[in-house]
């Protein structure tokens, strides 16, 4: 970005300022709990600016979201590889979640599934818009959303909705304030 003129550099900063809050929110959703969303946004931005200016992209938001999703998926794969080999290097350890939460169920979804659920249920995007944002087909988005919602319902103890014209319940309406006292 050093070869950009002062005016164009300011345009780039303004464009990033407009995108940052939504990109950070997106990164917080698709990242595992041990990954800082700001790191994902920073890495995506640095990689993108190494190739071209943001204003040169047709849809900088979609491009950066896809880059964030890829970085999150790469982190998850590296962590899975480490978990697979770590028991051979160290003795067995047992960890217990002191504060179990319904959010831990969401964290068990793949980053792409979390991204689809977030964009659909929180951002309110349709399947076609999500497909464009994530570089998937609309059919793949529908399939991922359906399977992710079914898994969340199963793991949260909900029931599968009837197939007739019953409205679905959005995940954002899920009551996470339960104390466990029934």
Number of helices: 7
Secondary-structure content class = mainly alpha
**Count of individual domains:** 2
Helix content: 55-70%
What is the alpha-carbon Rg in Å? 19 Å
On the 0-100 scale, what is the average pLDDT? 79
Beginning-to-end CA distance, first to last residue: 58 Å
* Percent range for β-strand residues: under 5%
Q: List how many beta strands DSSP finds.
A: 0
Low-confidence regions: 171-182
Largest sheet: none
Give the H and E element order.
Answer: HHHHHHH
Shape: globular
Pick out its properties.
globular; disordered C terminus; 2 domains; 0% strand; mainly alpha; 7 helices; 182 residues; Arc Repressor Mutant, subunit A
List the helices and strands and how they pair.
Blueprint: H1 6-30, H2 37-51, H3 60-89, H4 103-107, H5 111-122, H6 127-134, H7 138-155
Helix pairs in contact: 1-2, 1-3, 2-3, 5-7, 6-7
Question: How would you describe what is shown here?
Answer:
The protein is mainly alpha-helical. Helices cover 62% and strands 0% of the residues. Helix 1 crosses helix 2, helix 5 packs across helix 7 and helix 6 crosses helix 7. The longest helix is centred in the middle third of the chain and has 30 residues. The C terminus is likely disordered.
């Amino acid at each position: 970005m050093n070869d950009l003129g002062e005016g164009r550099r300011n345009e780039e900063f303004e464009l990033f300022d407009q995108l940052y809050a939504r990109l950070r929110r997106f990164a917080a959703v698709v990242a595992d709990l041990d990954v800082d969303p700001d790191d994902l946004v920073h890495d995506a931005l640095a990689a993108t600016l190494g190739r071209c200016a943001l204003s040169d992209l047709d849809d900088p938001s979609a491009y950066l979201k896809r880059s964030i999703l890829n970085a999150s998926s790469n982190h998850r794969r590296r962590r899975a590889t480490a978990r697979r080999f770590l028991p051979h290097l160290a003795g067995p350890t047992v960890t217990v979640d002191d504060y179990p939460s319904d959010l831990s169920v969401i964290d068990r979804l793949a980053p792409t599934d979390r991204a689809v659920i977030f964009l659909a249920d929180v951002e309110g995007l349709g399947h076609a818009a999500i497909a464009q944002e994530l570089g998937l087909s609309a059919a793949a988005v529908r399939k991922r959303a359906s399977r992710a919602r079914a898994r969340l319902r199963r793991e949260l103890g909900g029931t599968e909705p009837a197939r007739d014209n019953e409205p679905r319940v959005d995940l954002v309406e899920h009551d996470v304030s339960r104390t466990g006292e029934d």
